[in-house]
Design brief:
This protein has helices at residues 3-30, 33-51, 79-86, 97-129, 131-140, 142-161, and strands spanning 56-59, 62-65, 68-71. By secondary structure, it is mainly alpha-helical. It has one domain (32-161). A hairpin with a 2-residue loop joins strand 1 (56-59) and strand 2 (62-65). Helix 2 (33-51) crosses helix 4 (97-129), helix 3 packs antiparallel against helix 4 and helix 4 (97-129) runs antiparallel to helix 5.
Length: 175
């Protein structure tokens, strides 16, 4: 790697990523935003379950759906995927800022909704088939669902950000 390319990578990507992640972790830790975010996800999950006709109760970051209790922790939250998707705009410095921010906000919203649907499926399976089935589904199918909705959000983000060419890359003219 040439020295100028390495320096450009460090200045444009690595330093803003490290500083941004540090600021986000510091803000979430010292300002108490992590507990608020987990509480917001738990309340949204309880609201969705109640709209489906099930009786769910929420207390802090815990959702109770008889006979199971689900706690929204940092590892079950959509926060990690959302932060990673938020930093995608650093990879595209030539894209207009407005389009980049709109794509990032849409991708984070899709990740949030996808995680709520995943947690809702976990609790519904626990409600109807018991805690063992809930844990099995959470441990085995939860990561696959997470990968699926993160890839869908990234795909939609790339559709918005990447400008399409009018002609294909290999355009042959038959004269």
């Amino acid at each position: 790697m040439r020295e100028s390319v390495r320096r450009r990578f460090i200045v444009r990507f690595a330093i803003p990523l490290i500083v941004g992640m540090g600021l986000l972790v510091g803000a979430f830790h010292y300002l108490g935003l992590l507990d608020r975010y987990l509480n917001l996800e738990a309340q949204s999950l309880a609201w969705l379950l109640n709209r489906m006709g099930l009786t769910a109760y929420c207390w802090r970051n815990t959702v109770w759906l008889h006979p199971v209790i689900g706690a929204v922790t940092l590892s079950c939250s959509s926060l990690g995927s959302a932060i990673i998707l938020l930093f995608l705009f650093l990879l595209t410095p030539t894209v207009p800022v407005g389009r980049n921010i709109a794509a990032a906000v849409l991708a984070v919203g899709l990740v949030y909704i996808g995680n709520l649907l995943r947690l809702m499926l976990v609790l519904i399976i626990g409600h109807y088939w018991g805690a063992a089935s809930m844990l099995t589904f959470h441990d085995w199918f939860g990561p696959a669902i997470t990968i699926l909705y993160v890839l869908i959000a990234y795909w939609i983000w790339s559709l918005i950000v990447v400008k399409r060419r009018r002609r294909p890359y290999f355009y042959y003219r038959w004269d």
